[in-house]
Amino acid sequence: MDLKNLHAIVTGGASGLGLATARKIVLAGGKATLLDVNEAQGSAAVAELGERAAFIQADVTDESAVNGAIERAHARMGSIHAAVNCAGIGTAARFVGKQGAMAGAFFRRMIEINLVGTALVSKAAAVAMQLNSPNPAGERGVIVMTASVAAFDGQIGQVAYSASKGAIVAMTLPMARELASSGIRVMTIAPGLFATPLLKALPQEAQDSLGRQTPFPPRLGDPAEYADLVGQIIENPMLNGETIRLDGAIRMQPR
Questions:
Q1: Is the dihedral of CA 126, 131, 132, 134 positive or negative?
Q2: Among 55, 161, 194, 226, which one carries the catalytic annotation?
């Protein structure tokens, strides 16, 4: 699919990986509708991106809110060709620690935002994509989900986070197989250590120390590099049903 004429929704689009992706699409000539819970950041992002971008406040764990947001985005742009799922949280907590066992509510919240939110957005977007006329290759849309290297080598304190991201990896292939008959591709990106707002809030010394854990390049990833991979996935029709580690060859240690 061509980025120049692309109509995309991007969750978590007000900052970090999502904002970088929306910026990539808009600069290429496409349109992007940003879904995020943070209204102030969403409005600021749209002010930066210009008239080809719009913001809709939505909680990805709320099915009716997600469906309504997708309908509004479809009405605004006329169609939806791509859905990029960047909304998520990454709070660490020990499964059983000095303060006792992990609260069930903590585990459920991680699963609800990272996994269920991704599923709700993806299915609503797929419904909208099925309305598209196929391009000459028979393609109607692309769904990109965001996992993490923690899906494969999660650290101590990442039981809940790794569970949520591992499940995203696990549903990539069956989702791609199911949606293939509609001409919709599904891919997942598993980033390593990236300079998202969470890590950028750390002291520079801490950021540099984390970055040096990556074999090469020995630094934190740039959200623009994530956005570049999203663009390559959208443009390459043979990328389907797979998870790509975008991590500079890092393999996370136990702690």
A1: positive
A2: 161
